[in-house]
UniProtKB/TrEMBL annotation:
<feature type="domain" description="Guanylate cyclase">
    <location>
        <begin position="414"/>
        <end position="551"/>
    </location>
</feature>
<feature type="transmembrane region" description="Helical">
    <location>
        <begin position="295"/>
        <end position="315"/>
    </location>
</feature>
<protein>
    <submittedName>
        <fullName>Adenylate/guanylate cyclase domain-containing protein</fullName>
    </submittedName>
</protein>
<dbReference type="InterPro" id="IPR001054">
    <property type="entry name" value="A/G_cyclase"/>
</dbReference>
<dbReference type="GO" id="GO:0035556">
    <property type="term" value="P:intracellular signal transduction"/>
</dbReference>
<keyword id="KW-1133">Transmembrane helix</keyword>
<feature type="transmembrane region" description="Helical">
    <location>
        <begin position="322"/>
        <end position="346"/>
    </location>
</feature>
<dbReference type="GO" id="GO:0004016">
    <property type="term" value="F:adenylate cyclase activity"/>
</dbReference>
<keyword id="KW-0472">Membrane</keyword>
<dbReference type="InterPro" id="IPR007890">
    <property type="entry name" value="CHASE2"/>
</dbReference>
<dbReference type="InterPro" id="IPR050697">
    <property type="entry name" value="Adenylyl/Guanylyl_Cyclase_3/4"/>
</dbReference>
<dbReference type="InterPro" id="IPR029787">
    <property type="entry name" value="Nucleotide_cyclase"/>
</dbReference>
<dbReference type="Pfam" id="PF05226">
    <property type="entry name" value="CHASE2"/>
</dbReference>
<dbReference type="GO" id="GO:0006171">
    <property type="term" value="P:cAMP biosynthetic process"/>
</dbReference>
<dbReference type="Pfam" id="PF00211">
    <property type="entry name" value="Guanylate_cyc"/>
</dbReference>
<keyword id="KW-0812">Transmembrane</keyword>
């Protein structure tokens, strides 16, 4: 019995020692430290510093945002003239601000007049931004510092380094280490001497206390600060520190990124970056109110890991049971509580992950040694959980993991674009009745969509009053061109039917709707298109662009349904395409024939050839032929084309009807 206890004690001591070494080793590994930094992000967002009470203590900081309203009001392209910045400095100074920080790098000269105006407005209460960038090559690393123009410094302005250092995961957590950082110079310009800590103290890896997500600070637009008497409450800026910089109201997603915008502790929860001007305000508040935290050093962290491992060893010394699990969870909860108390009350971040892993590293192997029956039960549970899986889905993803990735495949498709004619005029006529316009458009798009879906098409998207659809994807359709043309004819019939309904309902005041349809067949790429986080099943390719151009050209050609040569070739034996015109479209070289279909009933080959030959004559300026095509729809179509070409060729060319039609 004593021997068993001694053996158990030795095994427990071995597990405790191994857990301590594991915890210390992981604490020096950068990927592990990034995981610990995520814990800091979570704690920092739980209880950010109270902005209002800090502002009441000394006036606070206000952000003067170069934002969308300012661009709209000022009406100038960026960069703005420096005379405008000079006016801003004068307006802020007149409004009673204590200091002005321009988070802008004026490193290059502009016009002499503008530079002189800005220099005249500067003074010791103004801080200009400098920048540092590290240039790395295979042979050397060079740190380059960009300073404002000497004439601005000579005018008395202060210069502060606005560069910040990001962690390995590109998140801003640490205070700048340079002795002349922008925020410190700004506080000096505002009076200095009352800061809770100095930049030298923050240099030893202290952690920034984030004030909140983007737009947490009181913010006024640049144009408002130019004229505070008219745009701001009386005395709003008096006694405050003003920081000027880019701060767009349209928040920048973290995956998109942006110039002078940074991920902070709040980015994980909001997904948005924080503008650099608010970062500078945050650093200034951290300095003057002593808000930054210290990351616990390795000796203190080692002590915490050792204490956690020893307590876990005591809990695991007796045979394992449910209480062992409870003891382990209790120890982890205690570690989390100590870490939170240390962070919120002592301003020291003691990472809880390594001590928690030490508890796990002690309890798990010792408990696994004791509970063999429970291990058997775990195997049963594992098999039971297998019934909750979807084997067919897993097998499918295993065969084709790319199904969940961006990309597509190349295949031949038929693409259709349908657009309402004169929609702008229609919308303007109903500008006072937007609800009625919406009902009317929905009433039209419903049968048009049905025409696509009933013939096996895929609706790609609705673009306002336009429908984009395609055939032969995702399911194969050997007759995709025929089905697309049939859908186009059905759309035209649906519009006629709706016009009859509207005329019966509203009488002669009813709007007369019309659509143009463009259809083209060609090679495209079809698949998941978009970003890594959000994508749509769509198509890309020149054939798609040409289909859209055909829809637009249908109005000029005076036919509601226009087909490309690729589609005409596909349906030649089924629907009898008829030559309409030869056109040149934007973005494509040369002239291409375009076709239409009179009805769903095919046209005899001989009749079609006679029609095409007659149209060829019209296209080169010949007089219309007095021939009958035996089909009323073809007679009407030929008359329409003749009228169109007569407008284009007022004087027919003698003998021009001696042409040969191109057949498809």
């Amino acid at each position: 019995m004593e021997r068993a206890k001694r053996r158990r004690l030795a095994e427990t001591a071995l597990c405790v020692a191994a857990a301590i070494m594991l915890g210390l080793a992981l604490s020096t590994w950068q990927p592990f430290r990034l995981a610990e930094a995520r814990v800091f992000d979570f704690l920092a967002t739980l209880s950010p510093p109270p902005m209002q009470s800090l502002a009441e203590a000394d006036g606070g900081i206000v952000v003067v945002a170069i934002d969308e309203p300012s661009f709209a009001e000022i009406g100038l392209q960026w960069p703005w003239p420096r005379t405008l910045h000079a006016e801003l400095v004068a307006a802020l100074r007149k409004a009673g601000v204590k200091a002005i920080g321009l988070d802008l790098v004026f490193a290059e000269p502009s016009s002499p007049v503008a530079d002189q105006a800005l220099a005249a407005a500067l003074g010791p209460d103004v801080v200009l931004a400098a920048d540092e960038s590290l240039i790395e090559t295979p042979h050397m690393s060079q740190l380059i510092r960009t300073e404002p123009l000497p004439e601005f410094i000579e005018a008395g302005a202060r210069v502060g380094l606005a560069s910040v250092t990001l962690d390995a995961d590109n998140v801003l957590r640490r205070m700048p280490t340079a002795p002349d950082i922008f925020a410190a110079e700004l506080l000096e310009a505002a009076g200095g001497g009352d800061r809770g800590e100095k930049p030298e103290e923050a240099a030893a890896g202290r952690l920034i206390a984030p004030m909140g997500p983007a737009r947490t600070y009181p913010t006024v637009s640049y144009y408002q600060a130019l004229d505070p008497e008219n745009f701001l409450p009386p005395g709003y800026l008096k006694g405050k520190i003003a920081v000027v910089g880019r701060s767009l109201q349209m928040a920048i997603p973290a995956e998109t990124g942006g110039a002078d915008s940074f991920a902070t502790a709040f980015t994980a929860s909001t997904g948005l970056l924080v503008p650099g001007v608010e970062i500078q305000a945050t650093i200034a508040d951290n300095l003057r109110h002593a808000l930054s935290s210290r990351w616990a050093g390795l000796p203190l962290l080692g002590l915490a890991v050792a204490a956690a491992a020893l307590l876990a060893g005591v809990a695991a010394f007796r045979p394992a049971g449910l209480w062992t699990l409870g003891a382990g969870l209790g120890l982890v909860a205690l570690i989390l509580a100590v870490s939170a108390v240390s962070f919120f009350f002592l301003r020291m971040f003691l990472p809880p992950i390594a001590p928690s892993l030490a508890v796990t590293a002690v309890l798990v192997p010792l408990a696994a040694r004791d509970i063999t029956q429970e291990r058997a039960m775990r195997r049963e549970v594992t098999r039971a959980f297998g019934h909750y899986l979807a084997p067919a889905l897993v097998e499918r993803l295993a065969r084709d993991p790319s199904a969940l990735k961006l990309g597509g495949e190349r295949r031949e498709l038929t693409i259709l674009f349908s657009d309402i004619r004169n929609f702008t005029t229609l919308a303007e006529s109903m500008k006072d009745e937007p609800e009625r316009l919406t009902q009317l458009i929905n009433r039209l798009l419903t049968p048009l969509s049905a025409a696509v879906l009933e013939r096996g098409g895929t609706i790609d998207k609705f673009i306002g009053d336009c429908i984009m659809a395609f055939w032969n994807a995702p399911l194969d359709d050997p007759d995709h061109a025929v089905h697309a043309v049939e859908a186009g004819l059905a759309m035209l019939a649906a519009v006629d039917a709706l016009n009859e309904e509207l005329r019966a309902e509203l009488g002669e005041t009813a709007p007369k709707l019309a659509v143009g349809v463009g259809i083209n067949t060609g090679a495209c790429v079809v698949g998941n298109m978009g970003s890594a986080t959000r994508f749509d099943y769509s198509v890309l390719g020149d054939a798609v662009n040409y289909a859209s151009r055909l829809e637009g050209a249908s109005k000029e050609c005076r036919v509601p349904l226009l087909l490309g040569a690729g589609t005409a070739a596909k349906i030649g034996g089924r629907l009898g395409p008829l030559l309409v015109a030869r056109i040149a479209v934007k973005g494509r070289s040369g002239v291409s024939p375009v076709y239409t279909v009179a009805s769903i009933e095919p046209v005899e080959e001989a009749t079609r050839k006679r029609f095409d030959a007659a149209v060829e004559g019209l296209l080169v300026g010949a007089e219309p032929v007095a021939a009958s095509f035996e089909v009323p729809a073809l007679e009407h179509l030929y008359a329409t084309i003749a009228a169109r070409e007569a407008h284009r060729h007022p004087s027919p060319i003698p003998g021009a009807s001696e042409v040969r039609a191109e057949t498809v």
